[in-house]
Design brief:
Layout (H helix, E strand, L loop, with lengths): L1 H14 L8 H8 L1 H20 L3 H21 L4 H15 L7 H4 L6
Helix pairs in contact: 1-4, 3-4
Length: 112
């Protein structure tokens, strides 16, 4: 799995400077963070709607789109996916499960 995710991130980074007419990824980078975040939110909503409606296949497809859009935002911010996975591992060591932290503890994240 991580190999596919690593390949996705690498492809996004490699595409960011292509001509927008040739690459949707390059077009997103050209349009900037507001467009990237809008697309990320749209995909998250689509995943939620499909999941609520019990549409398994559509939820899978939209989840792939959501991960792609998240990786675009991470690349724009120069955040490597490994940094996110390191945070998940840190939470798992602290709590025995990689769950969302309470709001008062999430600010204690250390940066790499």
């Amino acid at each position: 799995m991580s190999t596919s995710l690593d390949s996705l991130y690498d492809a996004i980074c490699a595409s960011r400077h292509l001509e927008p007419s040739q690459s949707r990824t390059a077009k997103l980078f050209r349009e900037g963070m507001p467009k990237m975040v809008k697309k990320l939110c749209e995909e998250a909503v689509e995943v939620g709607i499909d999941a609520l409606q019990g549409k398994r296949n559509e939820t899978i497809l939209e989840s792939a789109d959501l991960i792609y859009q998240l990786y675009v935002v991470l690349a724009q911010m120069d955040i490597k996916p490994s940094e996110v996975f390191d945070e998940i591992a840190r939470r798992e060591q602290l709590y025995g499960i990689a769950e969302k932290l309470p709001k008062n503890q999430s600010s204690k994240v250390t940066t790499v």
